[in-house]
């Protein structure tokens, strides 16, 4: 990947000015990716463009609109649809490793883009797993049209989202979500809410182009991941119909899908660690410090850590694709392995950041070099829900004498 540091000393690659401006309402045709390999190749080509643009997008409350237009034109927004629906087939469990590599490439280009993209793909996967054939067809068409999806699950501590039944078979919404990534830019967020009378939690798609929530942008004053627009979204008084409900009550939380999906955000995180590694290498090369024995030692440690992460993703992909995945025993093993993967990759990323800081020193942490941004974004993105509970669940699994082998 061409680096931001090297581009300051030579010729900048992937200049933003080279991108044609597309008038609103007349989107350019998208590329058609019909295989997992094509999607992986497209993501690898996209990564340097995203990296070159990342500093410009790194603004609190901003959103990478230009980058997602690139992603749409490259055919990446439909990657988790079947080929028959215009996708690359990454929804197939057998293609899980390709899916993780796509996410890693995008995360290596820009973690903020990777976070939103992972949510987009996650929503499309959930709709295919839980929705009716008519819903799958409808939302696949929306994805082909370039609409952005996402998953908003984090409840507002003061008032979480509730569905109130109306006489005409519709529902009125009450309450809010926080960390609603892409708020104001996603047209089809997939949201969880409590049904009336204790019936459980229900997923639904909110067409925000028709019913926009009230956004509190002041909520989002983050350390990193500034450009994810992760605002507080108040859904109060919006309405949805039965056609917007996805799956049965509580289906979102079924295993292994709920916890097993952690391997996808771990892949994006590992992409961020790969960017840290490449930028550290480039920094030392430009300064002529590659012969320093201590720098070589640190880069060796970083290379081992990065390769360890790759092996964890391979193992997680194998679990996701195992033929007995629907049995309770296999599902439990898949969740435990996913929890190990997310925990191991978090440790790997923290190690990479520490080694990189020692390698580049105070000089390397000055803007406009990318390390300061990469450190903020990766540190913030590593703060995922329930890390201690995930690790404790691994301990319970092994203490009960259970096996990861089918």
TrEMBL record:
- What's one Pfam family here? Acyl-CoA_dh_N
Acyl-CoA dehydrogenase C-terminal domain location, by residue?
265-379
Its keywords, alphabetically, are: Oxidoreductase
Query: Record's superkingdom?
Result: Bacteria
Domain Acyl-CoA dehydrogenase/oxidase N-terminal as annotated: residue spans: 45-141
Q: Which InterPro entries match?
A: Acyl-CoA_DH_C, Acyl-CoA_Oxase/DH_mid-dom_sf, AcylCo_DH-like_C, AcylCoA_DH/ox_N, AcylCoA_DH/ox_N_sf, AcylCoA_DH/oxidase_NM_dom_sf
Keyword Oxidoreductase assigned: yes
TM helices/strands, residue ranges:
none
User: Which Gene Ontology molecular function entries are recorded, alphabetically?
Assistant: acyl-CoA dehydrogenase activity; flavin adenine dinucleotide binding
Name of the protein in its database record: Acyl-CoA dehydrogenase
């Amino acid at each position: 990947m061409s680096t931001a540091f090297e581009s300051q000393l030579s010729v900048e690659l992937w200049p933003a000015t080279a991108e044609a401006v597309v008038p609103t309402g007349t989107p350019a045709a998208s590329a058609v990716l019909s295989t997992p390999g094509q999607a992986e190749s497209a993501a690898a080509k996209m990564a340097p463009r995203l990296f070159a643009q990342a500093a410009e997008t790194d603004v609190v409350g901003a959103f990478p609109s230009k980058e997602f237009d690139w992603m749409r034109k490259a055919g990446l927004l439909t990657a988790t649809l079947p080929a028959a629906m215009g996708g690359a087939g990454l929804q197939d469990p057998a293609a899980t490793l390709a899916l993780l590599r796509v996410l890693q490439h995008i995360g290596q280009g820009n973690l903020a883009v990777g976070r939103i993209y992972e949510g987009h793909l996650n929503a499309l996967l959930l709709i295919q797993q839980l929705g009716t054939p008519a819903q799958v067809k409808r939302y696949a068409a929306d994805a082909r049209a370039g609409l952005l999806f996402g998953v908003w699950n984090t409840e507002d501590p003061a008032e979480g989202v509730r569905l109130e039944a109306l006489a005409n078979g519709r529902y009125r919404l009450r309450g809010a979500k926080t960390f609603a990534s892409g708020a104001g830019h996603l047209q089809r967020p997939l949201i969880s809410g409590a049904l009336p009378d204790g019936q459980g939690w229900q997923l639904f798609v909110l067409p925000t182009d028709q019913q926009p929530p009230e956004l509190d942008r002041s909520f989002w004053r983050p350390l990193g991941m500034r450009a994810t627009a992760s605002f507080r979204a108040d859904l109060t008084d919006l309405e949805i119909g039965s056609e917007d409900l996805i799956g049965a009550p509580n289906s979102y939380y079924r295993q292994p899908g709920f916890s097993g999906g952690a391997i996808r955000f771990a892949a994006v995180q590992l992409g961020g660690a790969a960017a840290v590694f490449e930028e550290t290498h480039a920094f030392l090369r430009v300064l002529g410090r590659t012969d320093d024995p201590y720098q070589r030692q640190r880069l060796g440690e970083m290379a081992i850590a990065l390769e360890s992460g790759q092996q964890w993703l391979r193992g997680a992909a194998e679990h996701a694709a195992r033929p007995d995945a629907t049995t309770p025993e296999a599902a439990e093993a898949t969740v435990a392995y996913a929890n190990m993967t997310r925990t191991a990759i978090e440790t790997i990323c923290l190690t990479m950041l520490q080694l990189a800081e020692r390698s580049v020193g105070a000089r390397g942490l000055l803007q406009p070099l990318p390390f300061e941004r990469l450190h903020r974004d990766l540190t913030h993105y590593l703060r995922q829900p329930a890390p201690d509970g995930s690790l404790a669940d691994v301990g319970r699994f092994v203490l009960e004498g259970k096996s990861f082998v089918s």
